[in-house]
Amino acid sequence: MPKTTYYVTTPIYYVNDVPHIGTAYPTIHADAMARYQRLKGRDAYFLTGTDENATKVANAAAERGMPPQQYVDELAERFKQVWAKLNIRYDDFIRTTEPRHVKVVERIFERLLEQGDIYKGYYEGWYCVPDETFYSESELVDGKCPDCGREVEWVQEENYYFRLSAYSDRLLRHIEANPGFLQPEFRKNEVVSFIKQGLRDVSITRANRGWGIPVPGDPDKVIYVWFDALINYISAIGYLDDMERFERLWPADLQILGKDIFVRFHCTFWPAMLMALGLEQPKVLFGHGWWTINGEKMSKSKGNVVLPDVIADELAAEAGISTNIAVDAIRYFLCREVPFGLDGDFSMA
Q1: What's the pTM value of the predicted model, to 2 decimals?
Q2: Cα–Cα distance for residue pair 38/52, rounded to 1 Å
């Protein structure tokens, strides 16, 4: 029977800081798409949430002298408060520390290990904690992370690997057979180029330092945050728990993603995981651009991070309008100002 629902997702957001304009941007777009589909009479389902098992989240908690669970609880609530103020009407808010998610991650890990898509090996190489990404020597730029430019650390661990290299040809065939699968077109070309360079198997565990989902049967290790986080899109809608609901909603019609997590994770690793599980691919993976602030990249150290809820209050006070009208103005600006997929610049001038 043809699927009658419309399922749209945002990336789930790291809780190492409060929500800002960069996280509000895709969330508002997803909300607008869900509203549009409902106006057309479709049963739209909108998922967002928080990614809480990362090393950098535990580090952020330690810097604040807080237990990680208390820290993520507070930040997740902060996200919900900001989304409510921005009139974002999601259907579900998934947190990766929730039992409903953890048990699905554990069962998927066990299944892929049993069928040979996960195997044990030895990892030796570079790791960027802020990006939660492994890199080879040749990928580094001036000895630093090629994406964020920060220092990387040398890691030597016995780990479990996902057999990503086995899926190169299938990924390329699916992309070729489904022209609208990866959008916009220029980002699709980046993905194809990345795959054709040769995919390496992915280390999907780290040493257990007290935070993360322990590996089933091997509690000295935790599951790599990206393997864990990507599963949210199916754990939230009942995979392995409520299959009737899952089959009503999956595959996702639209998954909105930042360009920094588009190529390596959502357009390569994620589709390969779905292939390993025998599940359909999302209909569209869309990579949006970034917002700069007065021509500069947003950075806490520069003090130029734009908080959308604060901007709404300031705009309302300056213009003598209600906060709701100010929120509508911000939502309209973010949806209209820049063609979706390209970078944009935000200024209060």
Answers
A1: 0.91
A2: 30
- Provide, rounded to the nearest whole percent, the portion of the chain with pLDDT above 70: 98
Report long-range pairs for 335-340 (Cβ below 8 Å, ≥24 apart). Answer: 335/28, 335/29, 335/32, 338/289, 340/29, 340/286, 340/288
280 within some domain: yes
Q: Which of 105, 113, 147, 106 minimizes the C-alpha distance to 127?
A: 147
Q: Are 204 and 158 in contact (CB under 8 A)?
A: no
- Determine if the peptide bond prior to 282 is cis (ω within 30°): no
Into how many domains does the chain fold? Answer: 1
CA distance 320 to 307: 20
**CATH code assigned at 313:** 3.40.50.620
DSSP designation for 208? -
Domain that holds residue 69: 5-114+173-200+227-346
- Give pLDDT tens digits for 45-55: 999 999 999 98
Residue 106 lies in a domain: yes
Q: Is residue 136 part of a domain?
A: no
